[in-house]
Amino acid sequence: MASAFAHAAVAAAIGSLTLPDRTPRSCWIAGVACAVLPDVDVLAFRFGIPYEHVLGHRGLTHSLAFAAVMAGAAALIVRRAVPPGQWSRVLAFLFLAGASHGVLDALTNGGLGVAFFAPFDATRYFFPWRPIEVSPIGVQPFFTRRGWAVIGSEAGWVFLPSAVVTLAAFWMRSRRRRNAAAPESGASR
């Protein structure tokens, strides 16, 4: 799995591309939650559910179906904060943030793959190119030499690209707002 930090960074990048201007903080927080929440499946280990089971790690909670249901539930939670006429953009953000979790995990170099199509198909998938160092499971093992190696790997493959996308999107938005606010040249005198 990728770290929770990496999943949050990707959600922020997705939000910068999909969310409307002045989207309330609650929508952003819901998107980050959708990106991180699929790893709740690590609790399955405590109940004796094996990794490779559809309810195991990187199983159902990492699927596109789960991302869709989770996005719908999150959208209902933040519905009052959604700007008028922007429901579909916020819902798309929440779905893409949730779906990004499995995509990022399929780019790691460890684990059993991701069940993108669960519960309909339990087959696990990885991408052919897997440059991201797999993160240790749990908080305590993360803050070790291996955990810091993961952060180093994610810095180049996740954090830097996410930061570039986010900054570019916000720069484009501010440029668009400036251009919209500027008086037209050659307007009536």
Q: What would you say this structure looks like, in words?
A:
- This protein is mainly α and 189 residues long.
- It is globular and about 65 Å long.
- α1 (4-18) runs parallel beside α6.
- It starts with a helix and ends in an 8-residue tail after the last helix.
- It has 6 helices and no strands.
Blueprint of the fold:
Blueprint: H1 4-18, H2 25-36, H3 64-77, H4 87-105, H5 139-142, H6 145-181
Helix pairs in contact: 1-2, 1-4, 1-6, 2-3, 2-4, 3-4
Q: What's a quick, concise take on this entry?
A:
With 189 residues, the protein is mainly α. Helices cover 53% and strands 0% of the residues.
Brief descriptors of the model:
mainly alpha, 0% strand, globular, 189 residues
**Pairing-aware structural class of the strands and helices?**
mainly alpha
Radius of gyration: 19 Å
Percent strand equals: under 5%
Low-pLDDT ranges: none
Shape: globular
Mean pLDDT: 92
